[in-house]
Design a protein that fits this description.
Shape: flat
Number of strands: 4
Distance between the termini: 32 Å
Radius of gyration: 20 Å
Strand content: 5-15%
Number of domains: 2
Number of helices: 5
Structural class: alpha+beta
Largest sheet: 2 strands, antiparallel
Order of helices and strands: HHHEEHHEE
Strand order of the largest sheet: 1-2
Amino acid sequence: MAVVTFVPADFKTEYPEFASVSDARATAMFTLASQSLLDNTDNSPVMDVDFRTQLFYMLVAHLLTILGAAPTTPTNTPPGRLSQATEGTVTASFEYILPAGSAMAPWFVQTKYGALYWTATAPFRSLKYAVNGGSGIGFAIAYGSHPVDVPAGTVP
């Protein structure tokens, strides 16, 4: 298995809205994502390197949006999407939808890139359980890895 090597030019081709971001800044966001958000080793739950590359691009775009894409981009962007706006006497409302089931989901759904990442990684956040024979003792199949048999007589 291989790891993803970040190529800023390829990222900017996929996400042209970040063309003005320096390569160093984009690479720093990739480093942050690979060290804290998505495993980029042979043990990654995402075994397809091309798919993992796309996920990293989503994460880099998400981080650049949240932390500020360029020096002129404000970093105090409100979370959520603009759901209502008024021009006279300036009123704005932001909607922050909390998907059920995870404490991390709200952080991801702040941007369209994070929401796309969250949706694309749904299969990797669940565990599949298969019964092993008629004994009632089974094994877990997680992230496409090989099943691990539970020894007979072991109480989970």
